[in-house]
Write a structure and sequence with these properties.
By secondary structure, this protein is of the alpha+beta class. The chain contains four helices and six strands. It is globular, with a radius of gyration of 15 Å.
């Protein structure tokens, strides 16, 4: 049974605890949807000042991302590759951190309250699986340090899907 913990200490200490929780939570489970749902829930309760945490999954035949497990308000269902922050991160297979979404060319506004966003691509064995998308109602919410930790979170998650 999962028990929430209070994350104390430095950002590194908090993420270290989060990584251990994620690994333990997903250990032995191979169902992708279940693991993505639990990862979204875990991140949502860990991060502060966020209004959406979830996944978009790559659909190769249509060259688009489709909504997957998430925590937050209802969201856009389909995102074309190369469009918005998610489509850009997926297409370029690199993390995209946006301090002000209104300044991002082609930003797709699913939640009007979102002011900043970070999207981490999920790539396993050179294959795009999808993206981890996190939105915040706060300008410039995500730091370079958090970006690196979220990429590590994605790497741990990918071991389980």
């Amino acid at each position: 049974m999962f028990q929430p913990v209070e994350y104390k200490g430095t950002l590194q200490e908090g993420f270290t605890t989060l990584f251990k929780q994620l690994d333990a939570l997903l250990e032995g489970e191979t169902e992708q949807t279940a693991n993505l749902a639990n990862a979204a829930a875990l991140l949502n309760q860990f991060l502060d000042e966020v209004n959406w945490v979830g996944f978009y999954l790559y659909q190769e035949q249509k060259e688009e991302l489709v909504l997957g497990p998430f925590q937050g308000l209802p969201a856009c269902v389909r995102i074309p590759m190369k469009k918005g922050v998610c489509g850009t991160a997926a297409n370029e297979r690199r993390t995209v951190r946006v301090a002000d979404v209104t300044a991002f060319p082609g930003h797709i506004a699913c939640d009007g309250a979102t002011r900043s966003e970070i999207v981490v691509p999920l790539v396993k064995e050179s294959q795009l699986i999808g993206v981890l998308d996190i939105d915040s109602p706060v300008d410039n919410r995500f730091s370079k340090e958090e970006e690196q930790y979220l990429e590590q979170f994605a790497d741990i998650l990918l071991k389980h899907i």
